[in-house]
Amino acid sequence: MTRLIVLLGFLLVLAVSAVADEPTEPTDPADMNGLTLFKTYCKTCHGVDAEAGEYSPLELIMDQWDEVFDAIDETHAEAVLETTDGKSVPAFLGGKLLDKIRKFCVDHAADSEEPMTCG
Ligand code: HEC
Description:
Elements: H1 2-20, H2 34-41, H3 43-46, H4 62-70, H5 72-75, E1 80-82, E2 88-90, H6 95-107
Antiparallel strand pairs: 1-2
This protein binds heme C.
């Protein structure tokens, strides 16, 4: 009998951990488009009434965006974001993503064919 209870307990633990392990579907940044990346990595600090200034692609012209991104490693060297578990990580996950965001900003700059805010 004790064995059966132990066995049932063991199965219960297995079942619970199986449910807990269910993927929560973290969105892979590599799969995000420029708009989503901008919202995730820029709007966090540059949203409505942000202290660091409110920025959307149409806020600047193409040349200005190029200047911003040419210097972003320096201007944003201190930029960190808090993860949900309280760690500070560099705000940008590296070149590739930044290139996508840059393209999104330039493509939708004030003097582009499709000026755009991003909500
Ligand atoms: C962790 C916060 C943070 C994040 C994330 C962030 N910024 Fe900034 N940003 C700042 C701060 C702080 C300043 C400086 C504001 C000042 O000088 O008053 C700044 C300044 C700027 C400026 C003003 C011009 C300049 O170059 O200084 C632009 C444009 C800008 N950021 C764009 C972006 C873009 C695009 C992204 C996303 C790729 C981004 N920022 C992400 C904090 C952030």
